[in-house]
Design a protein that fits this description.
By secondary structure, the chain is of the alpha/beta class. It is built from 16 helices and 13 strands. The strands form two sheets. The protein has an eight-stranded mixed sheet with strand order 5-4-3-2-1-6-8-7, with helices on both faces. A five-stranded mixed sheet has the order 11-10-9-12-13, with helices on both faces. Helix 1 packs across helix 4, helix 11 crosses helix 12 and helix 12 packs across helix 14.
């Protein structure tokens, strides 16, 4: 991972469907001078917290739209902070087939992104609203789009094509795109650094496990397969998303519950996964506590989560042809030793074994390593930093 020189900072903006995250990042040191988080965007209950070091302020925005929040974040910056911004990096969820790398944003790029909104109807409109507002208020700066899907554009057709009619692919772009690309890109490069090996010499599976979850097969520094698909709904069990499911379930349930397709997709996206299995929460910490207290449903939700994650490692190891490392990242991957231990415990068939003490310590005292000395492949915990990837791409393209 190259480090950009210079002292100027990049403003990183991440506009989600109901939230806005921002950070003023030094791409050379990864230091955050300012961070901001707005939640419940689009409602009268919207809140905005701005943090500088240990100083945290709660502000009342004038409006509740994404544009209003971006304006409030910019207004919260001091004159000195605004003067130090060298570029603005925007997280964009979907880049389709067109965008295989980060790009400076101009009117043509904006038009292309508007054409892609059907591929991510919950997220791209929010991304676009944030970009439009920031470009309007900071027109003198270079704005850069960094795509969740871009890293996976190196996948071969055997990995990204679905077994559906060819015209679906050719006319409607139905294929696997993959997401969490900035995270998989960062942690794979960081894992190579921790292992003191060239990234181009490694075959690894990276597991981004949080409220959203995905796994990627990375060989020679490139993504060759991943678990998410056309949308972020495919693949692993997640906080509220079902992951893989028989498409026939949709017709079956629609008939019995008199539901339409939007309603079914709403359930699969927001009421399934850990939430649906447990009936109580999408938060792994809550489920861990409930399982320890004897909740059968919580225990099953955790077991299904770990089972499916381990299955994905096995499948992606086939895609790789060999397995040098398994990398855990994301809120669950970085912080839940029991989940990591359960996943690695199912990978004994591949010769992998956990070091219980290193795993309980989250790899902090062992250079990220949580596997035993006799493990066939190294297991690592690598905290992800998607904002830093966005900042560095922006700094490079804004020069």
């Amino acid at each position: 991972m190259g480090v950009t020189g210079g002292s100027q900072r990049v403003l990183v903006l991440n506009c989600g469907s109901s939230s806005v995250k921002a950070a003023l990042v030094d791409p050379s040191t990864a230091e955050r001078a300012v961070t901001a988080l707005a939640e419940r965007v689009g409602t009268s209950d919207v809140t905005l917290q701005v943090t500088r070091g240990s100083d945290e302020q709660t502000l009342a925005p004038d409006g509740d739209s994404h544009s209003d929040i971006v304006g409030a974040i910019l207004a919260a910056l001091t004159e000195e902070e605004r003067a130090d911004v060298s570029g603005v990096g925007h997280r964009v969820v979907h880049g389709g087939r067109r965008f295989a790398s980060s790009v400076p944003i101009d009117d043509d790029v904006m038009a292309a992104l508007r054409e892609l909104t059907d591929l991510a109807p919950l997220h791209l409109p929010a991304n676009l609203a944030g970009i439009e507002s920031a470009r309007e208020q900071l027109p003198q700066l270079t704005h850069v789009a960094v795509f969740d899907t871009a890293f996976h554009q190196t996948m071969p057709p055997v990995a990204y094509r679905y077994a559906v009619p060819t015209e679906w692919f050719e006319q409607h772009h139905v294929r696997r795109y993959g997401f969490h690309g900035t995270s998989h890109r960062y942690v794979s490069a960081r894992a190579a650094e921790l292992l003191d090996r060239p990234l181009e010499s490694l075959a690894m599976v990276t597991l981004h496990l949080g409220n959203g979850c995905s796994a990627a097969a990375i060989r020679d520094g490139e993504s060759i397969d991943t678990t998410m698909g056309l949308t972020p709904l495919e693949g692993l069990v997640m906080g509220t998303r079902s992951g893989d499911i028989d498409p026939g379930v949709l017709g079956y349930v629609a008939d019995r519950l008199d539901m339409d397709l939007p309603g079914l997709l709403e359930v699969l996206n927001t009421k399934s996964g850990l939430q649906g299995l447990s009936g109580m929460s999408n938060d792994m910490r809550t489920l861990d506590n409930a399982a320890r207290r004897g909740s059968v449903d919580a225990a099953l939700a955790i077991e299904v989560f770990c089972y499916r994650a381990a299955k994905s490692v096995g499948a992606l190891a086939v895609a790789l042809g060999r397995l040098d490392a398994v990398v855990f990242a994301g809120g669950i991957g970085e912080n839940d030793a029991s989940v990591r231990g359960a996943i690695l415990g199912r990978l004994g068939v591949l010769g992998m074994r956990a070091d219980p003490d290193a795993n309980d310590d989250h790899g902090r005292g062992s250079g990220g390593r949580i596997s035993s000395a006799d493990s066939s492949a190294v297991a690592l915990v690598v905290p992800t930093d998607e904002e830093l990837v966005i900042a560095r791409d922006t700094a490079e393209l804004a020069q």
